[in-house]
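Final report, Chapter 2: Outcomes

The project's central promise was a pipeline that accepts a single protein chain and returns its three-dimensional structure in a standardized token representation, suitable for archiving and comparison. That pipeline is now operational. To close this chapter, we reproduce one record exactly as it appears in the project archive, with the input sequence first and the structure output second.
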Amino acid sequence: MKVAILGGGQLARMLSMAAHRLGVEPWIVDPKPDAPAAAVARHVLGALDDPASTRAIEGCDVVTAELDHAPAAVMEGIADRVPVRPGPRAFAIAGDRLREKELFRSLGIPTAPFAAVDAPSDMPRALAATGLPAVLKTRQQGYDGKGQCSVESAAAAEEAFTRLGGVPALLEARVPFDRELSILAVRGLDGEVRFWSPVENHHEGGILRRSRPLDRALRRALGGAGRQASRALLETLDYVGVLTVEFFEVKGRLLANEMACRVHNSGHWTEEGAVTSQFENHLRAILGLPLGGTTTLGPTAMLNLIGALPPRDALARLPGARIHLYGKAAAPGRKLGHLTLRARSKDALERALDLAELALATS
């Protein structure tokens, strides 16, 4: 069997490694000769919208994507010849912040107040809907904190619209949330749905820094609502594969922030911390194989390595740590790898996280 992945970054790399373990041949499509996944997959060198690239993967059994904003139009064209999973509609919605929020609202999934801003003249109406403070976000092409500006006043809102290029945008109320969490789910070709344990996320500079297990009491209080919302999205989109939904918790209530139609950074812990990783289960789903178990094996957390790498021996000394490096050149704000940390108890995991943070800070 062959699976084609649009994009060749670290997510494609980890998907490709999981594919090899399943005896599946991974292909990637990426315009960069040094794409991280190129070392472990057959590399179709070219742009995603290049007809030659799409023709090259027509012999694969299924096509998927690792990108935040995979080109839906390209995927629709591929879907006429090769199954694309998840389907192009899911990527079209997730790649447009307004359509995404409108889908949440149509399914009764709570969100922060929001309004579309297509021109400066839309701003007064949008501000009346969201209030201040707020966040202005481009509708497309935003990730890791890019494509958005904080707004503290009406004048700042108009300046932000210009700073973001005057492109269609979404104004969203900035909510004082208690925490951010991710719900990871997988839906098979037969409609079976499984969930991993929810995790709490911590960001720095708009980039995910670490994900850790959600406290047991919070899992009980919030997990049901998160799973219900995720299941509604999976069923509505007739989704196949891993879906990640990020939520804000505000005084015990979940507000949906965004969804990702792919394996996700906040699910990296599953590679060492769950019976079946998000990468393997995504492949199982899109290939029509039975889903693997999602039970947690023990307290596990994930810590991103961003910007620069500490000495490898410093990482190797950390108790319970597994090192995952992506083969990328160092650069500010770039995700170069991650650590997964497993421990026998929640307290031991917190100690391991503290040691890891100290090692990163002092190296």
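Archive annotation: The CA atoms of residues 119 and 223 lie 39 Å apart.
This record, like all others produced under the grant, will remain available to the consortium after the project formally closes.
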